[in-house]
Design a protein that fits this description.
By secondary structure, the chain is α+β, with helices and mostly antiparallel strands. It contains five helices and three strands; from the N terminus they run E-E-E-H-H-H-H-H.
């Protein structure tokens, strides 16, 4: 079986090699060739202790909430009641209570329209 190895030069005498698709397989060498050989040896060691298996995943999985991955997002399908519930949940969440308040100037009409005028110049 063939594997791709990504080799990166860190300095004149330091090369890092990583086996593509194997996130925990990163080695070093003083030369590019040494780094590649170290990657090969590490991969052989890792493959000797484990194996690849194929699994099949149903792409139309359902969350525990019953919402399918293939369905449209919440903002496209939510009813008014669902929006109200989501807003109430957010307002009562710790993220909302820790958020900094905007100043009156920041939310004033003048501030909003001034920013638009500035961006159109």
């Amino acid at each position: 079986m063939q594997y791709q190895v990504f080799v990166e030069s860190k300095s004149d005498n330091l090369f890092v090699a990583s086996v593509v698709g194997m996130p925990n397989l990163i080695v070093e060498g003083k030369t590019e060739e040494e780094a590649i050989e170290n990657a090969k040896a590490a991969l052989e060691t890792q493959l000797a202790t484990g194996r690849f298996v194929e699994i099949e995943v149903n792409q139309n999985l359902t969350h525990s909430s019953g919402v399918s991955y293939s369905e449209k997002p919440f903002y496209e399908t939510a009813t008014d009641e669902e929006w109200e519930d989501a807003l109430a949940d957010f307002v009562n969440s710790s993220a909302f209570t820790k958020a900094l308040l905007l100043s009156d100037k920041a939310i004033s009409r003048e501030s909003i329209y001034q920013e638009r005028e500035d961006s159109q110049l």
